[in-house]
Amino acid sequence: MTESTLSLAVNGREHQLVGKLELFRPPAKEQGNGDRSGNGAATWSAAIVGLGYVGLPTAAALHGQCARIIGVDVNLERLREIEARQADLAGPDRVRLDAALDDGSLQMTSDPAAVSAADAVIICVPTPVDASYAPDLRALRGACESVVAHARPGQTLILTSTTYVGTTRELLAEPLEQRGLHVGSDVFVAFSPERIDPGNLDHLQRTTPRVVGGVSAECAQRGATVIGHLTDNVYLVSSAEAAEATKLYENIFRAVSLALANEFADACGALQLDPVEVTLAAATKPYGFLGAFPGPGVGGHCIPCDPHYLLWQLGRDGHRSPLIEQAMTGIQLRPTRVAERAREVLAAEGKTLAGARVIVIGASYKAGVQDLRESSALPLIAGLLGVGAEAHYYDPLVPRIELPTGLHMQSEETPAGSDWDLAIIHTVHPNQDYSWVRDCPRVLDATYQFDVAPHRVVV
Fold it and tell me: Most buried one in 137, 143, 165, 377, CB count within 10 A?
C-alpha cells in the first residue's frame, strides 16, 4: 500500500483522501496468492463461481496469472457453450479464454465442492430483481451457502456480485464463523464490485480500477492481492459495506443520469431541438457536467436492477429515496414511451398502430453484444404486440428471443424496408449493413443517432 495520499478529482476539484481510500500495490509474490508476474511461475489457484457475463471474463483474465482456474457453474448448458467456444466474449478476453482452454489451465465443473481446491474463490453470480422489482437472491444465497460449506482454512473468498449493503458479512462472514472458521485468521473475506463493460474494448479489466473492502484489515489486504491479478489499480475502502455501497452508488448515478437524459430528450422534442446536439454542447464545459445520451431504454444487468437493491433495503427499514425511485420509474416506462411515439408517427399519416407492420431493429441491450439481459427491446416488442401491431425484429447477433409474455420469436432475415409500415431503431451493431432501412417509409430512431435514413424522426 502506498504511503502517499491519493488524489482524486470530483466535480473538477482535487480531493486528498487520507486513511479512507488507499491505493494498494500488491507485492510480486505473496504466500497463498502466488506470483503475479504472469510469466508462468504462478503456483496459486482460483475458483470462479458463476461463468456468466462477469465470471467468464474474470476466469479468462486470470490465464497466465495463476496455475489453475476452476470454473464452477450449475448450468451444464453454459459449460458446454464455453467448451464449444460459443460464449459471447471478444477482444483480449476471447484470446485468453481460448488459450486457457487449449492448455488446460481452465477446468470447468458443475460440482460446487470443487472450490475447496482453490486458494482464492471469486463469486460472480447474477443478482437480478423479480417482477415486483424486489431482489431475487436465489442464486446469490445458493452460491454463498455452497462456498461456505466447502471453504477451508487459508482461502480468500471474494464476492463481486452487486448486492445490498451487508451481504458479504451476512452471507459469508457470519456463516463461516458459525462453521468454526474465524474470519481474518482462518479464512479471509472481502467484497470487490465487478466492473465489466461487455463488448467495450476501451474498458479492459487490466486498466479499469477496482475497489476492495474487507471484513477485516487482513481480509482487505488478501482480497486486494487477488484482485491485483486482474487490474493494475486496486483501491481499498474501510469495510466490505463501503465497497458494497460503492457499487450501488456507481449504478444509481448512471440510472439517474440516463433517466434525466431521456426526460430532457422529450423536452427537446417539445421545443424542436436535437438533444444530442445540446448534450454535446453542454459537455464542452470542462467542469460540473457529466452527460448521457437518450435512448430507447436502459438494459443490462446493472442499471435496471441494482438501484432496486438499495431501494428495497431502505424500504425494509422504513426509509425512502424519492429521486432514485422517480429515476427507476422513468427507466421502467421508457419502452412504453417509445411505443406511444410509434403510435404518434403512424397517426400523423392517418394510420393506426393496431394492424401495422412494425420491425424493431436490434434486440440486444447495447451495440456489439448478444446480451439480452433487461433489454428494453423485449418489453417494447411485447407492448407493440399487445396493442395489435404485427411486430417483428431484426438483429444479426441475436437469432431468437423470448418476450416477457413467454412468446418466442426469431429474427427476420435481412428484410426489405418497403415491407414495413414502420421501423423502430433500437440497437445498431457495428459493421452491419442497415442501408435497407432507407426504403422503409417511416423510421422512428430511438437511438437519436441513426443517420442511415435521412427521413427518420426521433422519440
Answer: 377
Are residue 200 and residue 346 in the same domain, yes or no?
no
pLDDT digits (tens, 9 = 90+) for 193-252: 999 888 778 888 999 999 999 999 999 999 999 999 999 999 999 999 999 999 999 999
pTM above 0.85, yes or no: yes
In a domain, 371, yes or no: yes
Query: Measured between alpha carbons, how far is 269 from 347 in angstroms, rounded to an integer?
Result: 17
Catalytic residue flag (residue 302): yes
Contact (Cβ atoms closer than 8 angstroms) between residue 171 and residue 140: yes
212, 235, 258: which is the final residue of a domain? 235
Q: In 179-300, which residue ranges form alpha helices assigned H by DSSP?
A: 217-227, 240-270, 275-282
CA atoms within 13 A on the CB side of 393: 28
The predicted pLDDT at position 29 comes to 46
307 and 327 in contact (C-beta within 8 Å)?
yes
The residue type at 200 = N
Q: Which of 66, 302, 305, 440 is catalytic?
A: 302
| Per-residue model confidence as pLDDT tens digits over 56-71 | 999 999 999 999 999 9
Which residue, 220, 235, 250, sits at the end of a domain?
235
| In-domain check, residue 328 | no
Which residues lie across from 68 on neighbouring strands?
45
